[in-house]
Design goal:
3 strands, elongated, single chain, mainly alpha
Length: 158
């Protein structure tokens, strides 16, 4: 079981590390906000999601995605910091949901393989119940983080 969890954690960490590149260069006309702020494997967001924009490359070789640095105003700096915190929180909540879903499947497998033994059936039902509770918590956390992010983006434009 520890090997499976270690593998899952390594998979998520690899996808998170792969998305930490802050600058990417594209041929002329191909970079845009959607490319600069794309999600990673399994819908995970890079920490800079929503903060990157396209710019003309200084060498004239195309367009570049770069992170918009906050200005000197406290409001801009607060939006920048909170965007990073919420992006990381979103990824953590999403990972909780994925892990809970894996445990629901694992509990279902244990339930099928219990062969009617009361102790094994009770253990499998408890695992499925706890995993479903975790899944609901993960989904609600993701919804809350997305709502806060939308409010933050709306407040920043006003």
């Amino acid at each position: 079981m520890k090997k499976i969890l270690s593998f899952i954690l390594a998979m998520f960490m690899t996808s998170a590390i792969a998305g930490t590149a802050t600058v990417a260069t594209f041929p002329a006309g191909e970079a845009n906000a959607a490319v600069c702020n794309k999600t990673l494997v399994f819908g995970l967001r890079p920490w800079y999601y929503g903060l990157a924009a396209e710019y003309e490359d200084a060498t004239g070789g195309g367009k570049t995605c770069a992170i918009n640095k906050p200005g000197s105003e406290d409001k801009e700096l607060a939006k920048f910091v909170w965007s990073i915190i919420l992006n990381i929180s979103f990824d953590l909540a999403l990972m909780v949901g994925y892990v809970a879903l894996i445990f629901v499947v694992w509990g279902g497998f244990k339930y099928m393989m219990s062969t009617g033994e009361p102790a094994k059936v009770a253990e499998a039902k408890k695992m499925i119940t706890n995993a479903l509770i975790g899944l609901v918590i993960g989904v609600l956390a993701t919804i809350i983080v997305n709502t806060i992010m939308l409010i933050l983006q709306g407040a920043a434009t006003n």
